[in-house]
Design a protein that fits this description.
- It is a single chain.
- With 499 residues, this protein is α/β, with parallel strands linked by helices.
- It has 2 domains: 234 residues, Rossmann fold (3-Layer(aba) Sandwich), CATH 3.40.50.300; 237 residues, 3-Layer(aba) Sandwich (Rossmann fold), CATH 3.40.50.300.
- It has 18 helices and 22 strands.
- The strands form 5 sheets. It has a 6-stranded mixed β-sheet, with helices on both faces. The protein has a 6-stranded mixed β-sheet with strand order 16-19-20-13-21-22, sandwiched between helices.
- A hairpin with a 3-residue loop joins strand 11 and strand 12.
- Helix 14 packs across helix 15.
- The chain starts with a strand and ends in a 7-residue tail after the last helix.
- Bound molecules: adenosine-5'-triphosphate and magnesium ion (MG).
- Adenosine-5'-triphosphate (ATP) binds next to strand 2, helix 1 and helix 15.
Amino acid sequence: MEPILQVKNISKVFPGVKALTDVSIDFYPGEVHTLVGENGAGKSTLIKIISGVYSPTEGSVIYEGKEVEFTNPGQAINAGIAVIHQELSIAKDLTVAENVWLGREIKKKSGFLDKARMNRETQDILDFMKVNLKATEIAGSLNAAQQQMIEIAKVISQNAKVVIMDEPTSSLSEHEIDALFTQVKILKEKNVALIYITHRLKELTMICERVTVLRDGCKVDTMMVGEVTEKQIVNSMVGREMGDYYNKHKHTRGKEMLRVEHLTRKGVFEDINFTAYAGEILGFSGLVGAGRTEVMEAIFGATHIDEGKIFVEGKEVVLDNPSKAIAHNIGLVTEDRRRTGLLLAKNIVENTSLPSLPAHARTLGFVNKAWERKVAKEYMDKLKVKAPDMYTILNTLSGGNQQKVILGKWLAADSNILILDEPTRGIDVNARSEFYALMHDFVENGGAIIMISSEMPEIIGVADRVIVMREGRISGELSEEEINEQSLIGLASITTEAS
Ligand SMILES: Nc1ncnc2c1ncn2[C@@H]1O[C@H](COP(=O)(O)OP(=O)(O)OP(=O)(O)O)[C@@H](O)[C@H]1O
Ligand SMILES: [Mg+2]
């Protein structure tokens, strides 16, 4: 079988960073070829070179037997190479259909946009994908998972021969991942070559044929998925033996840190009651869209509540503004880092010190620069943030490394109560194990953690107790001995007799 796409001896140098060194890989039609590697290994850079976002410093891209030099993504799309990037690029005030056809709008003979046809064709694709979305909905009103479906619909509409997906499942729940994999299988049957990036290795055996491991910008090996174990892949990613990375600890519950009573926001969540204790990691499980993020944003004061009470260390508080939550030492790591987590045009130091500034920061009104630097350095080291130095602008960090900076800034902020919304999304196995260790330290030193996670192995591996939400309500609570896949699924799933 002839490869449809080849990269040959590709190197890419950014100022201060060699992102790729002499990488050669062949991609075949009708196959899923996965790229794996730690954060900053060069995966996204490679696919940006293939898709015309960057040009290589050295080496070539050969497509359908001919060398190509795309100088912009439009050329790659026209040639049949479509990409779903790690950071979604949805225009929030356009409809689903307008997003799908953005830049390739269908026009009538008169030259006017053929909205009816774009809506119809989009709806056909959405129905074919079996996703419950309307072509005419405004994209900004959809959650991250639904916005991702727009990107997938777009790729399908482009009839591409090569489809590249950069961590497409990181914001999807299990149910939606199944829907995505159905699409992947259909694309395979159409003889499309898929290039797939993921940090969730169990996905490899579900859909992939080949896997290439990248480490520090170099190709370690390309292997047939059926011929290697997950453990072998992990070891070659990190370059050493990896143990159990959840590293589960037995914690002892301390005093009450956060209690909410009858928290309600009409139409979003209702009658939410729970208590988070010091010395405990409280998991929040459920399907994407169950209302977990909304509850946490409301507690943090980012959105309002209609009813209910919040108590911090036993005292009732009104948190109608994030600055009040921060003043009560509550930190929130949001699920959508591009929207709420980071200042992408600022450097690591500025981002790390952001929430802690009100407390420490000032001597006679000036920002304490030395303190800022010390803290930034400390958390860069602890979380192994890969960047040339602490003045690196966030925009140029790999996705997983941006996420590490968010975690660092809340750890640096002296929070007592940390709310983590899908905190390890896009984080590699090695950094995860570091991060879980930091979480264990945090609660063992008297902090309380609330962790939303849609990854069941993570909830099972890390949480001391789990609350499950379904359709805006708490559907159950599991003590440590009760936490297992079956009970989690049971409480999270929408059953037909309900409602
Ligand atoms: N535009 C840029 N300018 C400078 N450095 C960059 C730029 N884009 C990427 N890099 C650097 O190149 C290296 C590879 O980054 P890349 O985004 O390809 O990693 P990745 O394997 O996709 O990681 P992740 O799993 O975190 O998404 C990183 O060190 C990153 O900081
Ligand atoms: Mg990446």
